[in-house]
C-alpha cells in the first residue's frame, strides 16, 4: 500500500469498513485526519470511544433514545393501534422526516440472512408479537428494504403474524427493487407510506 507507515495502513483499513468507502476514499479520509489538530482528534476519539455508552436503544421499540427517554414510545400524539416495522433504527428517522406516518415503531435489529448466520432468533420478532397483542395493534406496516433478504424477512413476518387478527401492509410504489430506505428521498418515501398496500 504505497509503503505507508503501519499506523496509517491500520487507519485506512478501519475507514474501509464504512459502507461505500473504498481504498481511494479511505486514503483521502486518512490523510485528512492527519491534518487535524490534537484537540480535534481527541474530541473525535472521545465521541467514538463513548458511542456505545452514550447511545442507548429503547428496550420496548428498539429506537434510539434521547436523554429524556424514548421519543417514539412516549409520544401521546401517536396512533397506538398502528405499528411500523423497520430493520434498523436509522430507518425510523427517514420515515419521521416524511411527516406522513403517525403510528408507533418496532425495530427488528436486522433482516434474515442465512449467509451471515442471522436467523429469526437474532431478530426481535417475539417482542413484536407481544407488543401487537398488548397494544391491540390493528395494522402493521412493513417498511423493510426491498432486497432479497428484506423480502424474505417481510414474508416470514407475514407468516408469523397470520394467526393474529391484524392487517399487514407493505410500502408501495416508488421504491425501486434493491433500494435502501435511507437512500430514498422524502417525497418518494411519503408516497410509498400513503400508498401502502395489503401484503
Explain this structure to me?
With about 200 residues, this protein is an alpha/beta fold. The chain folds into 2 domains: about 5-55, Orthogonal Bundle (Helicase, Ruva Protein, domain 3); about 80-199, Dna Topoisomerase Vi A Subunit, Chain: A, domain 2 (3-Layer(aba) Sandwich), CATH 3.40.1360.10. Helix content is about 40%, strand content about 10%. The protein has 8 helices and 5 strands, in the order ααααβαβαβαβαβ. It has a 5-stranded mixed β-sheet with strand order 2-1-3-4-5. Helix 1 packs across helix 2.
Give the secondary structure arrangement, pairings included:
Elements: H1 6-15, H2 23-34, H3 38-49, H4 51-54, E1 79-86, H5 89-96, E2 103-107, H6 125-134, E3 139-142, H7 148-160, E4 167-170, H8 186-194, E5 197-198
Parallel strand pairs: 1-2, 1-3, 3-4
Antiparallel strand pairs: 4-5
Helix pairs in contact: 1-2
Please tell me how large the radius of gyration is: 20 Å
Order of helices and strands: HHHHEHEHEHEHE
* CATH level 1 class label of the largest domain: Alpha Beta
Named CATH architecture of the largest domain: 3-Layer(aba) Sandwich
Read across the widest sheet, the strand sequence of neighbours is: 2-1-3-4-5
Report the count of strand segments. 5
Q: What is the approximate shape?
A: elongated
The main pleated sheet reads as:
5 strands, mixed
**Structural class, please?**
alpha/beta
Q: Supply the number of structural domains.
A: 2
CATH fold-level label of the largest domain:
Dna Topoisomerase Vi A Subunit, Chain: A, domain 2
Q: Uncertain regions: pLDDT < 50 for 5+ in a row?
A: none
Number of separate helices: 8
Strand content: 5-15%
Kindly state the percentage of residues in helix. Answer: 25-40%
Distance between the termini: 50 Å
Average predicted confidence as pLDDT: 87
Amino acid at each position: 500500500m504505497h509503503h505507508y507507515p503501519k499506523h496509517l495502513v491500520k487507519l485506512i483499513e478501519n475507514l474501509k469498513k464504512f459502507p461505500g468507502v473504498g481504498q481511494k476514499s479511505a486514503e483521502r479520509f486518512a490523510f485528512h485526519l492527519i491534518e487535524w489538530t490534537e484537540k480535534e482528534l481527541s474530541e473525535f476519539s472521545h465521541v467514538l470511544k463513548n458511542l456505545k455508552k452514550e447511545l442507548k436503544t429503547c428496550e420496548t421499540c428498539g429506537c434510539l433514545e434521547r436523554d429524556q427517554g424514548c421519543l417514539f414510545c412516549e409520544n401521546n400524539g401517536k396512533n397506538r393501534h398502528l405499528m411500523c416495522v423497520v430493520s434498523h433504527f436509522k430507518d425510523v428517522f427517514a420515515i419521521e422526516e416524511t411527516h406522513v406516518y403517525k403510528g408507533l415503531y418496532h425495530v427488528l435489529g436486522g433482516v434474515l440472512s442465512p449467509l451471515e448466520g442471522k436467523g429469526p432468533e437474532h431478530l426481535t420478532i417475539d417482542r413484536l408479537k407481544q407488543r401487537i397483542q398488548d397494544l391491540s395493534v390493528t395494522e402493521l406496516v412493513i417498511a423493510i428494504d426491498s432486497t432479497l433478504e428484506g423480502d424474505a424477512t417481510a414474508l416470514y413476518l407475514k407468516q408469523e403474524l397470520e394467526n393474529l387478527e391484524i392487517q399487514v401492509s407493505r410500502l408501495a410504489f416508488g421504491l425501486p427493487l434493491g433500494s435502501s430506505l435511507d437512500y430514498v428521498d422524502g417525497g418518494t418515501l411519503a408516497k410509498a407510506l400513503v400508498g401502502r398496500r395489503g401484503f
